[in-house]
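hey so i finally got around to running the thing on that chain from the lab meeting. sorry it took forever, my laptop kept dying and i had to restart like 3 times. anyway pasting the input first so we r on the same page abt which one it is
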Amino acid sequence: MHPPSFSNVDHPPAHGGPGRPRLALTDAQARSLVQLVAAIVARHANETRQHRPFVHDFVRAVYHATGLTYSAAFYRKLLTAYAPGRTPSTPTIESEKRQLVHELSLRAVPREVIAPMDTSSADPAPPPTSPATDQALQEILTLQHHTIALVNGAATSAPGAGAASGLQAHNDYLRERLASVEAELATTRAYAARMAASVQEEASLAAERGRQLETLHKTVAEQTAALAAMATEMTGTRNFAMQAVDGVRGETRAVRERCAYTPFRKAPGASSQADILRFLHALFKGLHGTGYIRLNPMVLMKTGKPRRLDKTRAIDLDLFQFVLQVMDNQPSDKQKVHQLYLRDRFIFICLRESGLRASELVGARMGAVQPFSDPKS
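ok and heres what got predicted. didnt touch it at all, straight out
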């Protein structure tokens, strides 16, 4: 049992005439379409949500069964009758129909077989022109004018069997030539579209390279300015270093001159030493009398011959070091013992270094002990 034929369904005419003939599928067409749709349904059984592959095969099956192309509305009615589970959108059906028409035009199928595309859709953008495209269009126009002239001549001349057969042969040749030129024109348009896309891509790439080059120019300018500033800074640093070197050389020269100064050309004699000692005695005596120093270190030193210490009262240096060593070896773990050790050691060293009497040492206070400042600091 076959689906009902659509005897009451209208479709766009295949030849763009003023009338709208009614469509009726024959039994052979319906039988062929049923077999093709069954194979298509089995092929796309796992693609229930993707309708485009199914519509792609369905419109070709309709063309194989009927030899015609139809509008999107009629294709939807055929889908409702032969494949009720498929509900594609109208743009999908229209897109697949256009692709089929384009493929048929490339195969040089006669024009009366291919239905014109729906003029209600938006006009496509005109493809970019080229010399090859203009030449193909010129050939098409020439063939059309030649065909019109032949038809007009045949209409005015007397009918004849030889003329009719020759005209038919020439008409077939012109059809083949027209189909070939249309195929070349489609190929040329596709190539021109690809070339236009390539040119646009190259222009975008060139613009991007221009922006990168501008950025590089700015970077080079910044680096050049930084190098100039660095050169200026290095010049200032070099000048400062040279000035510092000159200052150091001057200071070194002054120190060398001070070190080269000698107040005595040779060691002073006994009388000179006595004069120096008397001068020092007077100096420290004046400092002690005015209160600048608490103790006079020149009290025990006399002018003239060196003073000999009494052997009975003097302590030998080795014996002094031995006493210090014994004091250092004594255990001083506790704080009190350590404080006494420090006090005894200080008294012992103070007696050795200052030469004070015992009465002077007992009467002295810590304020009388002032460390001498280091002249080098």
